[in-house]
Design a protein that fits this description.
Blueprint: H1 3-10, H2 29-35, H3 41-48, E1 53-54, H4 55-63, H5 70-82, E2 86-93, E3 96-103, H6 105-134
Antiparallel strand pairs: 1-3, 2-3
């Protein structure tokens, strides 16, 4: 798939200038997200929509699906908390506290919006990929 096809797809959305081309052919999830100007807050909200989790478990659930570092996820959690999309509470565990994260009602609303955005993006990429396969 050419970079121009991707830019053409994003042009009606006014986002064609946001596409970055990397000098390497393989990129981690972090680089791909950065290239599209996407943050990973939707991913963390989605995990927390299934129930509260403490930091380590949350990062392991994300890392189990995506090649991403923990150091990338914790700043996202702090931003989500600051923006009122998550609440944080501590619970004692074996003599120390574990910090738990919980999605707020505002966070659930934001998650639904991000799911719709992702669906639109994914459908567009799927369409581009199909066109590319058809035209060899």
């Amino acid at each position: 798939m050419s970079i121009e096809k991707v830019r053409d797809y994003f042009r009606p959305l006014g986002r064609e200038g946001d596409i970055l081309e990397f000098p390497v052919s393989s990129a981690t999830v972090e680089l791909a997200a950065q290239a599209l100007g996407v943050d990973l807050s939707g991913v963390e909200l989605a995990v927390l929509s299934h129930g509260d989790a403490y930091g380590y478990i949350l990062t392991q659930q994300v890392k189990g699906k995506l090649d991403i570092s923990e150091s990338t996820l914790y700043p996202v959690l702090r931003r989500l908390q600051r923006d009122g999309l998550l609440t944080v509470y501590d619970r004692p565990y074996q003599g120390r506290n574990r910090r738990y994260y919980a999605i707020t009602p505002v966070g659930r609303t934001q998650l639904e919006r991000r799911r719709e955005e992702w669906k639109h993006f994914r459908d567009g990429v799927d369409e581009i990929m199909k066109e590319d396969e058809q035209h060899g």
